[in-house]
Design goal:
This protein is of the alpha/beta class. It is 46% helix and 14% strand. It has 15 helices and 15 strands. Strands 4-3-9-10 form a four-stranded parallel β-sheet, with helices on both faces. Strands 5-6-7-8 form a four-stranded antiparallel β-sheet. Helix 2 crosses helix 3 and helix 9 crosses helix 10. The longest helix is centred in the last third of the chain and has 21 residues. The two termini are 48 Å apart. Bound molecules: zinc ion (ZN). Zinc ion binds next to loops.
């Protein structure tokens, strides 16, 4: 059974979905005001690996990841460029998915947009005010953190120490520095929606709690995001659900930081790096392999040297896979798959699982050298099964792509001719394929063709 570190409990615990075999996950998505950076890449890859591994294990996964399409930063950029905020958000969302597709992150089952949920958010804030858990000020509506007895659970700090550590803004009229905005009153010219407190827009923490509960229901299985979201964002999402008397996430999973040149990556340090640049300048699978070779809770350093090293490792994987395509396909090794499962179930020990994968690649190459085709075929199938389980595509021997339907059809006709021992016809078909510019090879799996 899968065991995961749970931030709320501070230890590794069995991951038990509310309905066996059906997993509901909510992972905080992007605020769409600029290109995705390396930190976005990491959380997307970490939770994509977890999702795929759960699916590989036979679970049905509902994966929700929101798009924050209204926010101060979007408005700022809209003002700077003199365009509507909605246009900035739409454009940046396109870029986001382009990057996610390039690194093979599966699309979410649902990607709720904050602006489509404003009505439900207003209803929640109204209810929190009615319950006495939230209050109105000159610039918005705030949640009173005091009203939740275990506030600080995800920060793993008491509310008193959080209050002592919080920065107090000079013009604040919040009752406590840890209270947070549920609703922000609009300044002139800002995009806004009507509410009992005047026109305005929802706060970020209110978006996620509303969308998670609406799409996944009470007591959904897992809430995830980068470590920097645990407090205050996730704490504040949870506080609203608790105040409403609703069961929120059963498990909290957070991934470690990305470091660039030895420093924690953050916008304030100005060292955030564009994910699209990384994808363009290297094998788009390299970042996934780096993520897999580190533990998801550890910090990860991204630099040209380790990206290059990951690309080299991928060449080893591809090279073995292509070589092994020459031998007859075998089923994967069940003992090795058990070991893979054991490692992955241990709080996603992907570094261990990938040490295993590369050992199998080494053994597989040796088996090919020794012409032990059965072992080589079995190891190749095992490696493909493991890499496939976590979304790392490994190259196969180059064959005609599915676009070359006519050529593939000739290759199959040639296989039929050979099976019927019609050698003249088989030779004629080979010449025909060569005239079309293909290299024709006979393999145990039949005629293979590739563009010469
Ligand atoms: Zn969120």
């Amino acid at each position: 059974m899968l065991q995961l570190f749970d931030t709320a409990q501070g230890r590794v615990v069995p991951f038990e979905p509310r309905r066996p075999g059906q997993v509901s996950m909510y992972v905080c998505g992007p605020t769409v005001y600029g290109p995705p950076h390396l930190g976005h890449g990491r959380f997307s890859l970490v939770f994509d690996v977890l999702r795929r591994y759960l699916e590989w294990g036979g679970n049905e996964v509902v994966y929700v990841s929101n798009i924050t399409d209204i926010d101060d930063k979007i408005i700022e950029r809209a003002n700077a460029e003199g365009r509507p905020a909605a246009e900035i958000a739409r454009r940046c969302e396109k870029v986001w998915y382009k990057a996610m597709d390039a690194i093979n992150v599966k699309r979410p089952t649902h990607d709720p947009h904050a602006t489509a949920y404003v009505g439900q958010m207003v209803a929640l804030v109204t209810d929190l005010v009615d319950r006495g858990d939230a209050y109105e000020t000159a610039d918005g509506v705030y949640f009173s953190a005091q009203s939740v007895s275990d506030y600080g659970l995800l920060a793993r700090q008491s509310i008193d120490s959080l209050q002592a550590g919080a920065r107090v803004e000079a013009n604040d009229d919040k009752r406590s520095p840890v209270d947070f905005a549920l609703w922000k009153k609009a300044k002139p010219g800002e995009p806004s929606w009507p509410s009992p407190w005047g026109d305005g827009r929802p706060g970020w923490h209110t978006e996620c709690v509303v969308m998670a509960l609406d799409l996944l229901g009470d007591g959904f299985d897992l809430h995830g995001g980068g470590q920097d979201l645990a407090f205050p964002h996730h704490e504040n999402e949870r506080a609203q659900a608790v105040a409403e008397g609703r069961a929120f996430a059963r498990h909290w999973v957070h991934n470690g930081f990305v470091e660039v040149e030895g420093e924690k990556m953050s916008k304030s340090l100005g060292n955030f790096t564009n994910l699209l640049d990384l994808i363009d300048s290297s094998d788009p699978r390299a970042y996934r392999l780096l993520v897999l070779r580190s533990h998801y809770r550890s910090p990860i350093e991204i630099n040209p040297t380790n990206i290059e090293a990951a690309a080299e490792s991928l060449k080893r994987l591809d090279g073995f896979s292509r070589r092994a395509d020459e031998v007859l396909a075998q089923p994967p090794d069940p003992a090795a798959l058990d070991e893979f499962r054991r490692l992955m179930d241990d709080d996603l020990n992907t570094p261990g699982a990938f040490a295993l994968v590369f050992n199998l690649v080494r053994d597989g190459n040796r088996a090919l050298d020794a012409q032990d085709d059965v072992t080589a075929g079995m190891l190749a199938a095992t490696v493909r099964e493991m890499t496939g389980a976590v979304g790392l595509d490994v190259e196969r021997a180059p064959t005609a792509s599915t676009g070359d339907t006519a050529a593939l059809s000739l290759a199959r006709q040639r296989d039929d001719a050979r099976a019927a021992k019609e050698w003249d016809r088989a030779d004629a078909l080979r010449v025909e394929l060569e005239d079309l510019g293909y290299v024709v090879e006979d393999t145990p799996k039949g005629t293979q063709i590739r563009k010469g």
